[in-house]
Design goal:
- This protein is mainly α.
- It is 39% helix and 0% strand.
- The protein is built from four helices and no strands.
- It has helices at residues 12-18, 28-38, 45-50, 67-73.
- The longest helix has 11 residues, at 28-38.
- The chain is extended.
- The protein starts with 11 loop residues before the first helix and ends in a 6-residue tail after the last helix.
């Protein structure tokens, strides 16, 4: 997964955002979501199904419901 950066992720931008002073737009909720995403802690439906959970791994649009798909590709607008 991290072959392009010699085996490990570059986390300085993430650390900078996590240590930034909280504002109305950037607070604990946003920092928590960033921690979750940066640590691969978000389990989309495709990952749940692959791990044996009884969920449909297919998105409403017919594609595999991965996090990347839901955020960047899906025409149904999960954003």
């Amino acid at each position: 997964m991290y072959a392009a950066v010699e085996g490990r992720p570059w986390l300085e931008p993430v650390k900078t955002l996590l240590h930034a002073k909280s504002t109305q737009e950037w607070g604990n909720e946003q920092k928590g979501m960033l921690r979750c995403l940066a640590s691969d802690g978000f389990w989309d439906r495709a990952r749940l199904a692959e791990s044996g959970y009884d969920v449909d791994p297919i998105c409403e649009c017919g594609e595999l419901a991965t996090l990347f798909h839901m955020v960047w590709e899906c025409p149904k607008g999960h954003r």
